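Q: What does the assembly look like in three dimensions?
Context provided by user:
Components: two
Sequences:
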Amino acid sequence: MLEPERILRLEGDAVVFLDQRRLPLEEIEVRCRDAGEVAVAIRTMVVRGAPAIGVAAAYGIALAASRGDDLAAADTVLRASRPTAVNLAWALDEMREDPSTEHARRIHADEVDRCRRMAAHAAELLSPGTRALTHCNAGGLATGGYGSAVGALLTAWERGLLQHVWVDETRPLLQGARLTAWELETAAIPHAVIADSAAGSLMAAGEVDCVITGADRIAANGDTANKIGTYSLAVLAHHHAVPLYIIAPTTTVDLGTPSGDAIPIEERDPAEITSRFAARNPAFDVTPAGLIAAIVTEERVHRAPFSATLAGAVTA
Amino acid sequence: MLEPERILRLEGDAVVFLDQRRLPLEEIEVRCRDAGEVAVAIRTMVVRGAPAIGVAAAYGIALAASRGDDLAAADTVLRASRPTAVNLAWALDEMREDPSTEHARRIHADEVDRCRRMAAHAAELLSPGTRALTHCNAGGLATGGYGSAVGALLTAWERGLLQHVWVDETRPLLQGARLTAWELETAAIPHAVIADSAAGSLMAAGEVDCVITGADRIAANGDTANKIGTYSLAVLAHHHAVPLYIIAPTTTVDLGTPSGDAIPIEERDPAEITSRFAARNPAFDVTPAGLIAAIVTEERVHRAPFSATLAGAVTA
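A: Here is the predicted structure of the complete assembly.
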């Protein structure tokens, strides 16, 4: 497992990130010396993944506090850095009460602890011999340590439940091929990268027992925003009676958003797809609650109808 | 429109191909001086697309005949070059009766003529304002001129029926982003390239009126093999009540294959996806007839149940 401090940490006068854009070819650190630089790191995806973005923002506020910077201005620039993940707003709200370095580190440690608890719940859903399919990277890199969906796979592997992982390469930025495959390789878990478009035919061939992903925001009714392509996987899984499990901490649940329609979907630069042709590049999609078999948080496994139990799960 | 001779032609002592691997960045010709070299061009995807592969094989036999080479050996090496497209076997069977250059050129001209007729039939299926989604490249490059699915889009555009085309980039070899977008740009048809995984969310947003693709092989019952990802699109289209139209010449219909289970699916080099990680790379998938709204050949529009009318459509 990747040490949480290797993924991101507050060190002296800087927040230090492992640059996720360069992985796995190069392991390079990026040092951000104020909240504005942390916001740029979030926007340009030096750090990505909803829980990791939240931790990054918390460190950004702690850094601003230690420098004596204007905390309201730091909050504003960080809050605007990416729109879909709700963990960003959650962490910034948390840091308003106590902008200390210790608090930011506690938020980080809590996220890793939540991952361990989610993984234990998720493993209960899996039978021996499971061949799981995952999309994007919901690994330690995405959460600041251990991972949500990948954390569930790590625990399932340790318990002898996991046979194989299909890794969607996840265009356009290839987080699956670059990051998830790297994390699974590090853990020596058998896996193969596939073109995103191959998932349907693997399901039709009976080679996928479940789909496991993370989430960027979960609405009060269970509708879940996650990396573009998750919705397609959900429809495909439903058609093939393959369960879709969403693994996410309660910090990803947004009771203020009643359903998926109200979740803002980021449109990123078309140049991520091609610099030559007209393109469109939504970064996330929303999977309706009706297509989700279970939402696993650190507290428990939620089953449909989700609204009742999600409302109870989110601590004030 | 791309001139058919620019895509592939028999010229003097060589079959000359526009190298589709280098498009759109470079327009380079590859000259093949015997049937073995033509087979290599097919296998390495200098030329691709089921009808174009058939034409290439016909030219390969004509070249062998003009050189006085062993025609049985030429047939064997060409027949083995790629497994899924049935047009290859069809064209080689045709050339056994008459291996002349004139015959090969007639096969080529016939394929282009079939495209024009398919396009006219397909346009009848579309209403004004259509926003179509297409996958891979079923354009002039794939058929030796005009195109099957792209041909249908060209005719729909000329008739004022087409508003916009969503182009799946089509991993791993990006035939959509590289070839279809190039053909649509040449025809000045409004389009945008999308990550393959974005198709589902576009359908959910009501931005796709139909899915139009070509085919590599159509079984007697209508099950259709096409570029990997077509099956996923078919399930997604079905879920959203969006019709899927398969546009293909009768040379793509294989009555000797009763259903999709019997269609050989080529597995290509995992290095097309990644050279660093374990990968799996099926090049095609099979879409069950039940998910297809219509199969358009040069003869007519076929509707389910397909077996009856497909059997009548294929000329002996």
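Follow-up: Chain A touches chain B through 45 residues (CB under 8 Å).
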